[in-house]
Model the fold of this input.
Amino acid sequence: MADRYEPHVIEPKWRARWEETRLYAAPDDDPRPKWYALTMFPYPSGDLHTGHWYAMAPSDVGARYRRMLGHNVMFPMGFDAFGLPAENAAIKRGIDPREWTYQNIDRMRGQLRLMGASFDWDREVVTSDPEYYKWTQWWFLQFYKHGLAYQAESLANWCPGCQTVLANEQVVDGRCERSDDVVQRKMMRQWFFKITAYAEELLRYDGIEWPERIRNMQRNWIGRSEGAHLDFKVDVPGATEPLTVFTTRPDTVFGATFMVIAPEHPLVERITTGGQRAAVDDYVAATARASEIDRLSTEREKTGVFTGAYAVNPFNGAHVPIWIADYVLVTYGTGAIMAVPAHDERDFAFARKYGLEVIPVYTHPNVDITTPIAAAFPHGTAMANSGPFDGTPEAEAVAKVVAYAEERGLGKGAVTYRLRDWSVSRQRFWGAPLPFIHCAKCGTQPVPDSDLPVVLPEKVQFMPTGQSPLTLSEEWVNVPCPNCSGPARRETDTLDTFMCSSWYQMRYADPHNPERPFSAEAARKWFPVDQYTGGAEHAVMHLLYTRFFWKAARDMGLVEGDEPMARLFNQGVVLGPDGNRMSKSRGNVVAPDDQVEKWGADCFRCQLMFVGPWDQGGPYNPTGMSGISRWLNRLWSLVVEPPSLIDLPDAPATRELRRATHKTIVAVTEEVEEFRFNTMISRLMEHSSALQRAREAGSVDRAAWDEGVRTAVLLTAPLAPHITEELWERLGNGYSVHTQAWPVADRALAHDDEVEIVVQVNGKVRDRLSLPAGSSEAAVRAAALALPRVQQAVEGRTVRKQIFVPDRLINIVV
RNA sequence: GCCGAAGUGGCGGAAUGGCAGACGCGGCGGUCUCAAAAACCGCUGAGCACACGCUCGUGUGGGUUCGAAUCCCACCUUCGGUACCA
Done:
C-alpha cells in the first residue's frame, strides 16, 4: 500500500475532521492548566497574504506544542474590522462598508482555514459586530466615569487624505501612517484618553518577558525627563500669572539670557507690545501654515520674533527678553523655555542669529569663560557666574538649585513626559460611535449603559469630500437628551480602531457574554495572555495602548494583575524572493493560496519557518520548497514503507538509532521552546536521514524503529499538522496526534558512548581522537601524545601547558 | 544627530570562547532507467598540492586569550526606531 503523499487529498480531509470534532476548542471547565496563546488578529483587507502566514503559522506551532505538553490551550482568532479601507471602498465604488467588510471576512476565514492552524473558531470576535462594539462603547463610558476620558479643544494632527484626526502614534515623520499624506495641524474639539496618567507605570515591565527592543521603543516614546518647573515673572503691566518653564537644567538658570515661548502659547496674545505686534502676528500666522514636517526639520535654521516683553529671572532679578520661536513646541513641557545659550546648542544658534547675550555659568577645563565662547558646552566642572552657587560641582548642582527654588517658592522639581494623551476621536463613519449626546442645556451627556450599543445607521450617503455620513444622518443625529429629554444631538465622531484592539484579548475569554465584556470567572480562568506574538511595528501603538487599557481596567477592579501579556515575541518581516518587501508594484508577491495548491499547507508553513530565525524575517525562497517537500515525502515513506523489522535490542545499530531519536527530542524541545523553528526543522531532517540510513542498511530492530518513527511524527506534528495526523493514523494510533503527549527524552539513551576529542598543538588542530565519553585528562593526554602527527609537532620542544575541556578538546602548548 | 539590531560559501542560514559553514537551495558527478522525471548515493569556501597534506578565510583595523565568527576598542556598511522634547 505504498501510496504517495498527496497533500491536497489529506489536508482538507483532516481539517474537516478537526472542525467536526472541535478538536481545538478550549473549554472553560477543563481542569488542565490553561495556556492562552495569541497572535495579532488581522484587518479584513479581503486577502490573506504571506505576511499573515509568517506571523500566524509559527504562533500556531507554539500553541500546538503547549497543547501536547498537557495544557488546555486557547488560541483564538478574530477580525479587527473597523477602519478606513472599508469606508474608502464605499466612497470610491459605492459599496456599503458593512457589506465590503463582511464579505472580506468570509473570504479570509476560508483562507485562514487553509493554514490548518489550531484556532478556536467558537471564540471568534469581529470588532465591527454591534455585540462587540457595544462593549467598546461601554469601556469608553467606564474610562469617562473614572476620569480617564475627556474632551478638549486642542491642536490636532489632521490627515487631509483620511479626513480625520490622528493620534501622535499614527504620525510617522510628519506623515499619516496609513495614507502617507502630510499631516496638518488644526485646532479641534477631540476626545482623549489620559494615558499620560500611566506614563510612569508604563515604563516598568516587572514580571513580564517582553523583547528589549520593544521596551526600548516604548521607553523612548514615553520619553521621561527629570528637571524642574521654574516661575519667571512677566514684566508687563497687568500680567499677574508667572511664565512657567520646564527645564532639565535648572542648574544653568543664571545663564538664562532670554525666554522662548511657542507661537501658540496663550501668553503671546497678552504680552506682545504694540511695536512688535505686526511682526509677531505674521510669525504666528506663518507657523500655523507650516506643515509639521517643515517645522520639525532639525536642519532648518531657527527663526523667531521678539515680543517686546521681558521676564524677570527669579534667581538674580535679571530682565530678559521674551521671544517666540517655532523650535519651542506648545505640546511639550509648558510650551516655554528659559534659553541658556552657553550650554544648549539650539539656544546658542538662536542667540548668535539674533545677537542675544551669552553667559556661561560653568567652568570648563578647555574653555575660557571670561571671553566670548565659540560654541555651547552642555557640561562643565563647577558652577560660575551663579551668585551663591559658584563653585558647586556639576554633580550636585541640579539638586542644590532645585532645593533652593523650592525653599523660596521659585519653582519645584518636575518630571515631564514626551508621551501625550491618546487622541481617540475620528471624524469617520466606519468605527464605533462615541456614546455621547450633546445637549444645549445639559452639555455633553453619556449615553446610558442601558441604551448601548449606539448602532451605526444603515443606508447612509458617502460623500466624496470624505465628510462622515454620520453628520448628515439627521434622523440618527437628532435624539432627546438623556438628562432633560430636550432636543439634543449625538456625538458624530467614532472611536480610533486601536481602541477596539486594546481589549480584544479580553473578549476572547468570554466572547458571547451579553451581560458584560467578560465574566469575572472567565477573567480569572484565562488572563493574562501567556504568549503573544505579532509585529514590532505596533510597538508604540497597539502594544502600548493595550498595556494602558489593561492597567486602567485593573484600577477599575475589572481585571487582576498589572500586565495583559506575560510573554511577547515579535516576528520579523517576510520579504519577497528578491529580498524586497512584497508589493504588487514590485511584482514579487507570493500568494499563500497558490503555494498551498502547489505544495500543500504543511509544506508552505514549514518553508516559511525554515528560511531563517523567526524574529529576523527575511526573503521567502520558493525554490527552497523542494527541500521541505523532499523531507515531508521522506517522512511519509518512512511510515508507509518500513524496513523488515526483527528483534535486535543489543545491536550497535539499534543503540545508534535510539540515540539519534533521543538526541532529537532533546534538541527539538529546546528549539520549539525558544521559537527557533529553522534549526528545529533541520534537526528533524537529520533525524529523518538517520531513519533513512537505518532502513537502507537492512533489517532494523522493531522497537527502535517504531520509537524512531513515532517520535518523528510527534515532534513534527506542531509544524506540519496535516501530514502527521495522517501518518499517526497509518501507524495504527487513535485520533488525534495533536492531543498526544510531547515525547520525553531518556537522557541516558541520548548520551554518547564515544566522543570525538579535538587534539590541538598551540591552538591548531592536529588530529582527532575517538575515546569513551568521560575519559580523564591523563588518558586523553596519553592518547594524544601517542598520535604521530602530535609527536611530530611536539618533538624537540617542551610542553609548557595544556588545556583540557572534557569530551571536547585537548590543547598542548609547547 | 541619538538609541537599537545585524554584517559568515553562489544563495537562505548554523555555530555565542573550543573542529567555521549544521540543515536546506543551487551546482557537479554517480546509481536506477531504452530515455527522462522522481528517488537514492557522493562531492561542493578559496588557493597551493591536485595523492598523504599545507596555507588562507566569518565587513575593516587593532587588542585580550593556549584558543575569537563569538569578548573588548576604533572604524565602515546595511536595516529598524526616533529626532528642535528644553
